[in-house]
Protein 1
Amino acid sequence: MNYKFKSTLGLGLSEDNLKFLAEKAFRNLNLEDWKNQRLSWSLFNNPKDPLPGRDFTFWEWVYALLIFLREEQLRALWCEGYVMGFVWRRQAEELLLNSPIGTFLLRFSDSELGAITVAGVGQGLGGVAETFML
């Protein structure tokens, strides 16, 4: 995965990015020893074994992100570090919990292919709000 991101976008993946991808691919949010796990074809890209609650595979999800990020402006945002990207929704909420109004982060959508979720703190929203940009 790291090679694919680096060759396509010019920037490889961090350890946190790789851990997120391993957790998503293995469908295990508390994956221990993720660096020594081997991913089966079924979990990677078998249409009969999509991601939980979705109608797409892990690879379809990753590939859609690569296509999405190849656009010049998005690639620049990713390479400059303005897109947090690989973060679980709950983690995003926790990161924003005590942040001032107007704070936001950009993460990759779990439910939409090739989409970014904007999670932010707004007045009168009762905490964190999310909207999708396709």
Note: The two ends are 23 Å apart (CA to CA).
Protein 2
Amino acid sequence: MTIPLNTATGNYYIIARADADGQVPESNESNNTKATAIHIGPPDLIVSSLSVSATSGADLTTTLTVTDITLDQSGTGPAAPTITRFYLSTDATLGAGDVALGFRNVPALSPGSSSPGSTSMPVPSGTAPGTYYVIAKANADSSTPETNVTNNTRSITIVIGPDLVLSSLSAPATGGAGLPVDVTDTTKNQGTGSAAASRTAFYLSANAARGAGDVLLGSRPVGVLVPNSSSTITTTLTIPGGTPAGSYYIIAVADDGGAVPETNEANNTRAVLIRLSPDLIVSSMTIFPTTVSLPAAAGSPINVTETTRNQGAGTAVATTTKYYLSTNPTFDALADVCSPAACVPCWRPARRASARRRR
């Protein structure tokens, strides 16, 4: 059967009538009909499902794979073949300034049936990193009249561009001024676009936040990173000489200098605690002889054997251990003397490690 031309859009019934011409005398002439509802009019095409994934290569280009389901809603008319198009937008509403990414062909659809499909499309070159919307529009070219033309679009958000972070950072718990320290970091691109070559820098700071007064210790190069790839390197740095003892932080900064435009510039740092805290003691000392007779005592040699030890958490640079003559066991910088005027200076340099010396 064919629906008559110019039939107005609306809800109708198709009624079947047995013995429609009354050719057969029946015991009951009132039960000859049966009706089924039908909607007569154009189709109603919508995008019932939409998802997007992104991949990127070493050439820094990003490709979007858009998966959609275009549906002709139940209760409407059948749809002729149409096109579903995809757009890149800064908001969820399709507008004149949105960028067309691509399209896919949708076959003829009967009411209630759908067409799933995946379409791969490159992101236009020069697209700045950030948050965007991918908008899919069914019957994008308006090739088929529809019951409702206001429900043809569907949108989904996507973040486009690289995002460099420090996924791990480690360093020795202790160190010393003027001494080397090995720092291992993993710089990762957790974004959807490839990151160009950059550098990760390391700073010595009094706190865990990067600030203007932090001291640059060094840096290391990071090559091109495709999405979800990373670079792990151990870098030997040197704590500046003269750095006072105390607790510090080594802060690693990904993309130091901002050479790579990123979707998030606020997550590029990571800090690790390091203590520069030596503690030097004289752990043992013996003297021979312990008794000297006057008047020869003033010029008599005394043999001192002592051990200078670092019992602290940090490494100590080279220092000097001196010997003083005192009337009591407590050191007094004013009253105690290092040596009589007639004697050679009584001191010796101590090495970085525990040192034992006899004089």
Note: The chain has four domains: 10-40, 45-160, 164-276, 280-358.
Protein 3
Amino acid sequence: MSGGLPVLAVRDLAIEVATAAGPVRVVDGVSFELGAGEVLGLVGESGSGKSLAMLAIMGLLPPAARLAGGEIRLRGCDLRAMPPAELEAARGRDLAMIFQDPMTSLNPVLTIGRQIVETLRIHNPALDAAACRARAAGLLGMVGVPDPARRLRQYPHEFSGGMRQRVMIAIAMANDPVLLIADEPTTALDVTIQAQVMRVLTAARARTGSAMLLVTHDLGLVAENAGRVAVMYGGRIAETGPVADVFARPSHPYTIGLLRSLPRLDGEVDMLFAIPGQPPGLDRPPGCIFQPRCGLAAGRAPCRESAPTLAAVAPGHASACHFAGETEAWDTAATRQTETHAGGPWC
């Protein structure tokens, strides 16, 4: 394979789920790339489709969902065309995943050591037992678990939440994958432990050069750890670009709403901002999927009648909004209204 190939290339990904009324497309036209060692943050409200996209990459879609189109390539290899045995071999070796709740991901009746060794032996059958245990202890040491040789003999319930997440990182990094998918890796942890776990993850990735897809609701986590961000809404990418550009100059009303929802330290507010309305269900509106909640749309015909496509607003920065050029002025006016009339409407 060519060294210039992206580690991960997703093109026009489409996923449908079966319903009583027929199939519904819940992910539509999602495209992004990840280079070696790069971190891409995938953010959005619950139901935006980011977890389904992640499961599709891993080949782990639930039975009710199916890939309806698109390409998923890992270092140039088409994962969709791989025979099941090859895809199973690639999981854990070339691509690995860290789930958000380690207590439900770890087997409660097996020791930590056995679970790490199992990952090693599946992909490295030539390793003997002693080499596997030494490697497992080294992995625990790498992620900051003290006295790793002793902790290998313990069970998941004997570890704290932060330590269990370190074990999940150790398992994911056991075979030096080229792509790591982290699904809300710090959701259940307090702020201090969250920072420790992300430092461990960064150090582990630095050793292997792994690229990472960071799936999260936490915009602060993305700001601190990702180079680029893709904002998803209703199964589509609403905005994408370098983190610094998107956060400083958002050009989609949904991105603006997410950023305005963050707590601030530079002033007091009576109530945290929330985007009006609810995310779309399976009954998707025509036109722009965000327009029922969008103050910028204001009932305009293009928003009601046609779905916008991603278009460049700056180098490397794209937005799927018919009126992306108006978002800055609209945001300024909406912010002024909210500050003048506490709790004033966004729409």
Note: The longest strand covers residues 24-34.
Protein 4
Amino acid sequence: MGSMPGHTTVLAGYRNSPAEIARARDLMDIVPKNLSTVLDIGARDGHFSHLLTEHFESVTALDLTMPQFHLDRVLPVQGDATKLQFPDNYFDVVFCAEVLEHIPALDKACSEIARVARHAVVIGVPYRQDTRLDRTTCNHCRKTNPPWGHVNTFDEHKVSSLFPACRATRTSFVGSTNERTNSFSAWLMDLAGNPWGVYEQDESCIHCGKQMSPPTSRPFAQKLIAAMALRLTRLQEEFNPTHPNWIHMVLQKDVR
């Protein structure tokens, strides 16, 4: 994933937030120990690659563009999770957090992850995320995008089913939220052009590939519709049950 002006500062703030610190701590708690090699898929700024050096002799840090960091015992490589360039069973562990929610070819990516793992796969994804919230509207093609480019949603069953050759040996949950909307509010917000979507995201439009940006101006009718949608969603949140923000799973691979 490439960087944008100010991206490093924004990402550093995100990494230092209490929610992110708790998530990273949990992932490092559950990652298998006493093994030698790990592949970090979607390495981005090297945050997890660096943390993984505390538990593995060598870390391979993979991203769609060549990672631009230099860390001891970390090998940066360019690659695609849907067609990994490594032999079968090449890494003791494959670590994949903040990635699978972005990949349209999800089954292919998970098949590749399981293929190159010798012992285990560690997965971290949003849990039961309502991707109707915080959607954006592309100013170029006018199509609606999911927040943060999250084209997939997950629960325990979904993660396990994506790795049929593995068995889940550990599952943990991090954070809590009651954020959900409803079909009517989401439809109204789409009509209003999704003015409060997550336009600060790095991800480009999933339809036309151009950079997202917030609407510059909106007619009064759209402003009224957006306000109505927001009020309905906030009213609903008073009755929504809470659920975790993230699910983390260790999936053991039985190699014969």
Note: Residues 7-253 form a domain with the Rossmann fold fold (CATH 3.40.50.150).
